[in-house]
Amino acid sequence: MAPEEVRRHNLTAVLDRLHRSGPMSRSELAQKTGLNRSTIADLIGELSRLGLVEEKPGTASAGPGRPSPVVSPRPKGATVLAVEFSVDSVAVATVGLGGHVYGKVRQARARGTHSVDETIEEVARMARALLDDFAEDQVLVGMGVAVVGVVRRRDGFVHLAPNLGWKNVPLGALLGARFGLGDAVMAANEADLGALAEFRRGAGVGATQLVYVNSEVGIGAGIIQDGQPMLGAAGYAGEAGHTLINPDGKPCTCGARGCWETEAGEAALAERAGLTEFVGQQLIEEITQRVDDRDPQTLQALQVTGTWLGYGIGNLINVFNPDVVVIGGLYQELYPYLREPMEEAARSVVLQAPGEAVRIVRGSLGVDASLLGAAEMALSPVIADPAGVRAVTPTEPPDRVEA
Ligand SMILES: [Zn+2]
User: Fold this and answer.
1) Dist. CA 239 → ligand 1 center (Å)
2) Cα(199) to centroid(ligand 1), Å
3) Span 330-354, pLDDT tens digits
């Protein structure tokens, strides 16, 4: 490696460590990165000049002598706008280095088709308030977008988002133009981003191979392999909801029959529970109420749905050999009721070796997993090239709406 390449690599290593693990002393940093102390001092100097880290005097130390100064990521030095287009809501957040959330708004929406233009205007209004709260010296570096659909990462082109009624929408370009951010907009599928967030900051911290199961209207999976998202040849990997699980099952929205989501998805659960008039959060609340009342049909519906969920998870465990499977999305809240049948069914199909190491856990980031994952994605270019950070200046979105 050329010296400048080595330097960039080392800057990335130090910033990545601080971004993921939070404040630590120089000696801890040296230990974790394997770099010597004078190199660390030099790298911290450069990252400080770039405004990406700050160093403060340490507090009481265990040993003798002066307490070692503590180095922290500086969230204001690189902040991103995170946006999520979900089935039941739109959300916007401002998140800085180190995962610091400055502000967050989520707006519930009725399910169904939404105009792309109106949705972008809504996001612009929501973002305005958050951007107005920026400090003078706060640096915006880009936007990360989570979409419930099939998305091309390179440019944020949405091929298909059936639950929003979107097809072939150049979402990345539209958002870039609307906010004046140009190509500093990255977009990806929400299950992939939920996986990234749970891996970096949630229930999957420390995992090597993680499978994230996202349940919204459908079921999707996000896979992290060796710390990196597994996207497939063209970015469409993880459509686990459309793997065949029951040849005698119901027709699926994709045109096939007996897909995993037709047996284990929200609609199947609602139908079994006799609650088809409810969707999303309302369905969760109805089910929770009926579980409290020990309603037999609801308990049976959870038993059957949990079993189908478990078979699919077992298949994923056999294919990917994860150390953690994280249950996210709507089923995060129903996890206590689904857990037993799900674990049992998964164990019944999992081979012994991959089954021994795996844990199936509830996500810990709640409804915001994909939103936080979008922020992580948008911050990744900063980590990859700290010296190449460029500030972007958003236009004043709402003014144009009212004009
Ligand atoms: Zn299907």
Assistant:
1) 9
2) 27
3) 899 999 999 999 999 999 999 998 8
Ligand 1 centroid from CA 203, angstroms: 28
Distance between Cα 62 and ligand 1 center (Å): 58
Asked if 105 contacts 394 with a C-beta cutoff of 8 angstroms, the reply is no
Distance 27 CA to ligand 1 centre (A): 52
Q: Is the pLDDT of residue 399 over 70?
A: no
* Residue 296: predicted pLDDT: 98
- Has this prediction a pTM greater than 0.85? yes
Are residues 105 and 242 both part of a single domain?
no
The tokens of 347 are what? 């164990």
236 CA distance to ligand 1 middle (Å): 14
Mean pLDDT within 187-214: 95
Convert 258-295 to b/e letters by CB count within 10 Å (16 or more is b).
bbbbbbbbbbbbbebbebeeebbeebbebbeebbeeeb
Residue span of the structural domain in which 252 resides: 204-364
Q: Residue 295 above 90 pLDDT?
A: yes
CA distances from 126 to 83, 84, 129 (A): 10, 12, 6
On whether both 384 and 330 belong to a single domain, the answer is no
- Domain CATH code at residue 256: 3.30.420.40
Q: Strand, coil or helix: what is 399?
A: helix
CA–centroid distance, residue 240 to ligand 1 (Å): 9
Last residue of a domain, one of 21, 41, 73: 73
By three-state DSSP, how is residue 330 classified? coil
Considering the domain architecture, whether residues 59 and 93 belong to the same structural domain is answered as no
Q: Ligand 1 centroid to 214 CA: how many Å?
A: 15
Distance 258 CA to ligand 1 centre (A): 7
Give distance in angstroms: CA of 81 to centre of ligand 1: 33
**DSSP codes joined into one string, 220-269:** EEEEEETTEE---SSS-TT-GGGSB--TTS-B-TTS-BSBHHHHHSHHHH
Confidence of residue 396 (pLDDT cuts 50, 70, 90): low
On whether residue 197 sits in a domain, the answer given is no
Query: What spacing in Å lies between the alpha carbon of 267 and ligand 1's midpoint?
Result: 13
> Does 233 lie in the same domain as 176?
no
Same domain, 96 and 42: no
Distance (Å) from CA 260 to ligand 1 centroid? 7
Task: Give me ligand 1 centre to Cα 254, in Å.
Answer: 4
Domains contained in the chain, number: 3
In a domain, residue 198? The reply is no
